[in-house]
């Protein structure tokens, strides 16, 4: 009951029932209604409505007024606010006509009426009644009175809601001059004053006031109070608008934690979640935002819900649900129109967002119309100093660009940019938004010099954003932020650079430099953060980091369990994922070591060039969608690959452009894979993938090649040159790097020792270790168990589909030979004594326990689950979402897990996923050899490489990795690996040793299927 009442003090009526009865002898109806009211029988009171009005109409006295009070309050109990307000107004008229009515009672009624009118969004009437109440309190009790102060505060709030912020600020500033206010109400008034400054765009002043207010609240009320939570929430708002997103998120989450411990704050909780969701939308975390909105969204026609609808719609647009978004924009606009009118700031803001949605569904006529309406009103109601106003200038400019009115477009986009330059910092995201649009417009106008300047401004801003926001985001959030907010502009620039590089060769230099800065950005930052923490002397920080790793281990265990097992666990997957994300963010905020990982040194192509020797060259391959700056403002359905080539003598990078990216990623890759699979000669792939590059690089003794896109999925060495009848392996010495800037790090850390010490070898795992070993002849066979077992969610079910049918993982006898021979090679040719784990010892637990071996060699089955092989039911969706759970290595005991769903032991199910491999300690590991099938495959993330085992072992610390791109032959792999180690131990560098081993095996096995699957990445 009375759910509508959420804040503020409602003043009490002063007359008692004794006084009323004394004034009116006809008291039977009053006594009956009073008893019902005291027992909270509001239905009975409402049922007596006609009798109450009969009494009121017969005699407008005190008892009639009191009966109206009881009736109005009963309607409030059932949230019938409009009826309640009507009755309260009638009560006020009655009391004003009664002689000798206490003026304070009249003041109380004005206050209560104004408060409920405010809730009902009738702000003009609420202003009138709060003003009337304040004058009565001032006349009767003076300004040192709660009634006067609270009515003034509410009056200021009402003025603020209707956009009269200056009036609101004047009321609040006058209140702060009163000593009584300083003693009793300072935190309330300062909160409202801080938000008033925020509303007019004075974000710095707002932040200053709200920070001081939070300090005051902490001293007076403590950090676990609702007042402190409200202080955190209000301070978070200017942080958000000043693009301090990580600080804002922290304040919101801290407030929600406090509120959760206190009862009766549902309204505040919903408001805070709404703000947090808006923040997530702003930084590209759309799914997180939508999840929150769908949790809090309601159907009541309030301004709060109108804002929620609008924010929800913006997130829906971001995930391409445009029609649904327009539906929610319309709901929002309808509510705002009824309450505030079409001339309100909130109305035109939502109108602007709806216009953007209409542009997305190509309703250009209505898009232009609505954008024009919102812009026209914004000029009347917003100050130019308010950053919100610049949004209308920008969007109106873009709307004119879309309709080819270039003169108007330039006028308004420049106006927006100039306002942002004046009132915001150049690192503010809004500044980059307008500079990007000016870059496109200048490009369209064929002014490459200006376009280049604006692109450079934009990217300076982007890198500042990365430095500011990345430390406080989880890895997945970093990926979402970069992909959703920043990456497309780098792709636009690539198209621009290719269009004008002949006139301005420096554009290729910048293109190369931006690729150095962004390729593998998240992976490098994650690996560096890990290394910084583990090498720090901060034990508390290291313990917190290990706690995070342990939480991720628990998550991995839940992914491998059956549905029934998961249901029995006290810890749930969703909660663990949330804990893991929170721990990661906590590490970020608490750790300079963690944060420093995102302060990237700016490398240029010239830094890479300095590391090259005569006769060496480097190529940065860049995949990008083609963009044309016409009125559509969208990418074309065309993919290009730009190979930027440099050598010791380059004056600037040289471009090798492949404009058939769609064919490379579809038609030609199928031909390449089929040729490998069916062991037939591939006479086409060299021509399409490599010939343009080979024609410019054959003269070099060594080529460092950093792949992108589809080039991560092909083995360069197996491409066959039909002209020379040779493979690339025989014609060129190609070394793969994740990013050519790796040359700087490798050359700095190179040691004179050719063979790494302390090799650790795993091979020939006993996949039947554990449960399946105990099966007797009288019991079901392992195959029977598989046949009868229901497919569980996630990993196990996917693996059952992956190994096709009921067969279990088969032994690989060649891996035992392989590991034993490598062990003997070390012992015979060096002073090393490898740590070797075979059969039962080659399990997941032993592998997770390795500590930075110089060489880690793992010979077993590997797997990569394609999308059609991963989870295909709703229960399994969460498993499929994480690409690092789709690839892994199969260790001892795996058949026990696959067949029965039971783990062989604690922390191991026999399956080491890439998700788990990322947590290994390989900080000083020179080489990881993944002697298994498909260990180089994974989910392709353009610009960020392959999300799979390769990425996992790189994040774990490995300098170089040998991995496979397809299913390999056991015997041929054993011979290849043995040959590689013989070469390496005998003094040949790793890459040459590896290439020679491939050539040796090629003499025996002619098809690349046998010798070409493995590639080495790193140095």
TrEMBL record:
Residue ranges occupied by any CHAT domain in the UniProt entry: 687-1019
SUPFAM superfamilies: TPR-like
Superkingdom: Bacteria
Keyword vocabulary terms for this entry: Coiled coil, Signal, TPR repeat
TPR repeat copies, ranges: 270-303, 306-339
InterPro entries in the record: CHAT_dom, TPR-like_helical_dom_sf, TPR_rpt
Coiled coil: 524-593
Keyword Coiled coil: yes
Signal peptide: 1-22
UniProt entry tagged with the keyword Coiled coil: yes
PANTHER family: RAPSYN-RELATED (PTHR10098)
Name by which UniProt lists this protein: CHAT domain-containing tetratricopeptide repeat protein
Organism: Marivirga arenosa
